[in-house]
Amino acid sequence: MTAVAGSPLLICRHSAWTSAAAACLETLLTAGVFEQRPVLVLLDAAVTLLIADQHGEVIHSKTLARQMPALELYGIETVYADPAALLAYGVNTTELVLPIQLLAANQLAGLVAAASTALVF
Question: What would the pLDDT profile of 76-102 be if each residue is shown by its tens digit?
């Protein structure tokens, strides 16, 4: 799982229960359909997208975490997550809905520079 130079980069900062995260996921899947090989970076509350066995019905909301394993079907192979956010939100890296790469502190700038487009949600 490595970033592809010239690929679109989508950065999500919102939790799994928000319209911003839904828009990010929809844009990501659309880019995947058109074989753009997008890269996803999860920062802040967006790491909640990785938590398995979420029960959004408790708060009368859909959770996007159930859609995350489908990313591979759309050719989306690169997902980065901020290790500080994983720790802050209590996300156990052994129980994620899909494999990730931990984002090094100085790596985000390089990903943005290498991307054809960078979108922040």
Answer: 999 999 999 999 999 999 989 999 999
CB-CB contact of 20 with 10 (8 Å) = no
What's domain 8-120's superfamily in CATH? DsrEFH-like (3.40.1260.10)
Q: Name the residue ranges covered by the structural domains of the chain.
A: 8-120
User: 97, 103, 98, 64: which is closest to 81 by C-alpha?
Assistant: 103
The amino acid sitting at 35 is: E
CB atoms within 10 A of CB 104: 11
Query: Sign of the C-alpha dihedral, residues 92, 37, 13, 59?
Result: negative
Q: What's the pTM value of the predicted model, to 2 decimals?
A: 0.91
22-79: pLDDT as tens digits: 999 999 999 999 999 999 999 999 999 999 887 666 666 677 887 898 999 999 999 9
Count how many Cα atoms sit within 13 Å of the Cα of residue 9 in the half-sphere of its side chain: 23
